[in-house]
Write a sequence for this structure.
């Protein structure tokens, strides 16, 4: 029993200490002019879907629930968001060349259609990020028209 | 006693939570670590150029750094790996192609061509990198756009060997790719539908 107590305390201390390690939160005050929603005229339903289901990892602004600011969760998220933004960052949409926009749209459509995005580790917590069938169709329809306009 | 138990439970909960996250992160890493680098493969396909172009060939055969022909060779090697349904090899060759794309020397082109080539390379590199870390289904998705990029590159850089633009009407609403041979070997379906497609255009 003594051993359990010691281990518990050690773990608790480690947990407390790692809270002081800094993390770069992916947050910004303003919405840049290059944001997907500003560059394009996005219908309300698609706007909502993209914001709720994609923007946390694919823009410069994540909305963090409180537990996501706890370590080691925050570290895990930081890495995830970095990777997500590397592949697609809606905040810098306007900076992509038309060629890359088309590429990104292709991938967006493929990933959403096949249900690979949003990823399971995200939707398991953010249940509202699961994209319904009709929202999926709306996004794909919109993306198709956007791609054709480029 | 009660207090101890409570702390234990709490700690256990935290541990299992963090363990869960770590495990998840690890699986992701392992897919990345499969990325293998190039080496001997750039030599592999030099006979691709079927021997009868002598003028510029030296430049290309020496090491080909910064040369669009190297990109084409790497592209064709990658295509052959997809034709052979070889996921691991395609990963390797995707990484090789990404490297050679990054080395293209665009200084001899006009400003307009340079900016176009920059766009093309930026996009193509991204696709090649994805190919180096994806399963075969994704590799083929990326290869589609990559093929478009490489075709657009050839429109600017030209090619030393005759190319065939081939087209498969079935894959993703109709999809093209490039080949040095006239006969069809479909990189999007591989053994599943090896000969689906037709020559759409010849590029000299």
């Amino acid at each position: 029993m003594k051993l359990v107590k010691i281990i518990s305390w050690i773990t608790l201390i480690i947990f407390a200490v790692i809270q002081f390690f800094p993390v770069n939160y992916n947050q910004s005050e303003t919405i840049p002019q290059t944001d997907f929603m500003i560059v394009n005229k996005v219908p309300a339903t698609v706007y909502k879907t993209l914001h709720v289901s994609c923007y946390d990892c694919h823009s410069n602004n994540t909305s963090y629930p409180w537990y996501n600011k706890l370590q080691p969760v925050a570290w895990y998220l930081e890495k995830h968001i970095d990777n997500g933004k590397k592949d697609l960052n809606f905040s810098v949409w306007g900076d992509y060349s038309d060629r890359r926009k088309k590429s990104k749209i292709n991938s967006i459509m493929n990933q959403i259609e096949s249900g690979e995005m949003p990823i399971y580790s995200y939707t398991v917590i953010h249940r509202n990020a699961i994209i319904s069938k009709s929202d999926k169709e709306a996004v794909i329809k919109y993306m198709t028209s956007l791609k054709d306009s480029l | 006693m009660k207090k101890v138990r409570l702390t234990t439970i709490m700690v256990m909960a935290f541990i299992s939570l963090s363990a869960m996250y770590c495990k998840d992160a690890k699986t992701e890493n392992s897919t990345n670590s499969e990325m293998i680098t190039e080496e001997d493969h750039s030599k592999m396909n030099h006979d691709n150029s079927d021997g009868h172009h002598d003028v510029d060939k030296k430049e290309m055969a020496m090491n080909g750094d910064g040369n669009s022909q190297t990109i084409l060779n790497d592209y064709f090697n990658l295509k052959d790996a997809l034709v052979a349904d070889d996921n691991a090899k395609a990963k390797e060759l995707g990484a090789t192609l990404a490297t050679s794309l990054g080395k293209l020397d665009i200084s001899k082109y006009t400003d307009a061509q340079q900016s176009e080539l920059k766009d093309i390379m930026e996009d193509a590199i991204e696709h090649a990198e994805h190919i180096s870390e994806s399963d075969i289904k994704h590799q083929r998705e990326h290869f589609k756009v990559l093929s478009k990029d490489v075709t657009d590159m050839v429109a600017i850089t030209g090619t030393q060997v005759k190319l065939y633009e081939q087209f498969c009407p079935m894959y993703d609403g109709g999809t093209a790719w490039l080949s040095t041979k006239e006969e069809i070997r479909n990189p999007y379906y591989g053994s599943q539908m090896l000969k689906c497609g037709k020559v759409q255009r010849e590029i000299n």
Observations:
- The helical segments of chain B are 2-33, 41-44, 57-62, 68-83, 87-102, 111-131, 136-157.
- The interface with chain A takes residues 4, 7-8, 10-11, 14-15, 17-18, 21-22, 24-25, 119-120, 122-123, 126-127, 141, 144-145, 149 of chain B (CB under 8 Å).
- Chain B is about 55% helix and 10% strand.
- The longest strand of chain B covers residues 163-168.
